[in-house]
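explain this chain.
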Amino acid sequence: MAAVLVFSALFAAAFIPLDHRLSAPRNWQRSTNIDLEGVRHQMLHGTPRRRVAFIALFVAFIVVMLWVPLRVSLQLTPIVVATTAWLGWETCSVLWSVNTRLSLRRLPQWIITALAGFFAGAALGVTGAMMAVALICAAYLVVGIGNELLNGTRDPEIGYRFAGTLHPNQQALNCALLAFSTCWLGATESIPSAIAIGGMITGMGGLGLTRSRLAFYASVTAALISIAMTPSGSNRAWPVGLAVGIVLTEVAVRSLLRQVRVEDGLGGGLEGTLTGIVLFGRPSYATSLNGRTMLWKLALADVGPDWILGQGFGAFWDVRRLDMIRQKTGMKVWACHSTPVEIFVRSGVIGTVLFLVTMVAAFMAALGLHGISSALLGSLLIFIFLEGLLESFFALPSYTSLLLFLLLGALAVS
């Protein structure tokens, strides 16, 4: 338990300067007013916040590497082989990068994040890793609630969305991870049921308040799959409670916030009402996934002849491409908003296949666990994959990608 607390504290502290902002409740609503010149400067020169974050993460990495040899001996399990091949390929992509300098500057952050998470997970085991996920997500949620009380605002156009210290979509992912991890811990009797239920309710409540459509539908889908995956003879109360709780929480939040506004040509009547419910009452370009399909089309086309090998880690997103996408779509973005697409543009189809093989190996390892443990952990990986289809969080150096590698490392020794 001491190792879980130490690693959780180290990782949570390391990523606060990188991912979190006290101004998040106000600034996420003004995402269209992003200072593009500031983003260009960050791309060329980095920022002090990122340097501090990865110095702290490097310290955590050193602690992990000093601890792991005393606790675990890794063998050539499918997850170890797949993860090594994937990360090795991304490292080698520097050799054919279209911007070697940019790749060399960005790659160490990714490798440190991946190795720190993977080896910490291997040292902690599945139970320890799930406890670490729950502790980190709970800490960020508590800090986010405090920040909302001090700095929270309500946009008159789109209503309230819980952000905390993150963008609402990333906060939704954080809350869902808390709900799934505490559900697993409760179902496996790793923590008292009362604490597990409290964590689930808190996570589901935060998820509902973010009004994130992707996180909601991904988590409901994963929870329903966990019910179907639960072996006969095992208690289905935990996965059923998770699925029902997520749906009921969303209904309650919508009722309390009265989010019934329907725009974007959705019309009125029953059809408009149902559409408004599906879209959480948010004005939205739903047919283009809020512009993602346009972004993916441009990104995939711009890879061109590099589709097999990719353009090199971190080399795709340079200042020129930032300006090009801004001119063609009006979007101010510096990520593909999809984990597979993000990996594809930098590591090509080979890197993307290796990532998918890694996820499949992790899922198969989760199924090798016993009883309800396998169903809930497998459904958590499904949730991560579904969330990653429309977000790049798991393909970039961040605490969410670290948590993914934490789970991969734990399953590698399971």
The chain has 16 helices and no strands. Residues 260-266 have pLDDT under 50 and may be disordered. The CA atoms of residues 110 and 397 lie 5 Å apart. The radius of gyration is 21 Å.
